[in-house]
Design brief:
Blueprint: H1 2-17, H2 21-27, H3 32-47, H4 52-72, H5 77-93, H6 97-110, H7 115-127, H8 131-145, H9 152-163
Length: about 160
């Protein structure tokens, strides 16, 4: 009976998290690189979905993979930056703006001039009412991206600055 109850709890828990048995098996993987890649895939999928429920579900899956990959360790600096930036994006999609800003800050500790992390951290600062921090990040994005031919990040940063 106890075993049956344990199986039932496992099924209900995974249903609530939206995990299938195959995904749970993938999560037990111990290769940090594969886990990070899987998390990034879920994060990118969440970016393309407009349903709040589905975004939340995909982001929770992505965050599980990111947390496990970070716990295992052994990721390169580029992989760490990708994990932190995508982790921040997931937290932002889920409206956990402070956690999102923390994740982007971790990416920026590794690569201080990462335009994507700066721009996203600025957006999350703005969402939490930290206007001056947001402005600092946006001004840095404009400074860094003004040298690129397209300047798309600088243009986006200027749009956000105008709204602050």
């Amino acid at each position: 009976m106890k075993k049956l109850i344990a199986v039932f709890i496992f099924i209900v828990f995974n249903f609530l998290l939206g995990l299938s048995f195959a995904e749970e098996k993938e999560f037990k993987e111990n290769d940090a690189h594969k886990l990070a890649c899987k998390g990034i895939d879920y994060c990118k999928a969440a970016e393309k979905i407009w349903s709040d429920y589905k975004v939340d579900q995909y982001c929770r899956k992505a965050l599980r993979f990111f947390h496990k990959a970070l716990r295992i360790g052994g990721l390169t600096e580029k992989e760490l930056i990708d994990v932190y930036v995508n982790q921040g994006a997931c937290y932002g999609y889920m409206r956990y703006y402070n956690k999102a800003a923390e994740s982007f800050s971790k990416a920026l500790k590794i690569e201080p001039e990462n335009i994507m992390a700066l721009l996203n951290r600025a957006v999350n600062y703005a969402n939490t009412g930290q206007k001056f921090k947001a402005m600092e990040d946006l001004e840095k994005v404009i400074e860094l991206d003004s040298h690129s031919p397209q300047g798309e990040f600088a243009q986006k940063a200027e749009e956000i600055l105008d709204r602050l």
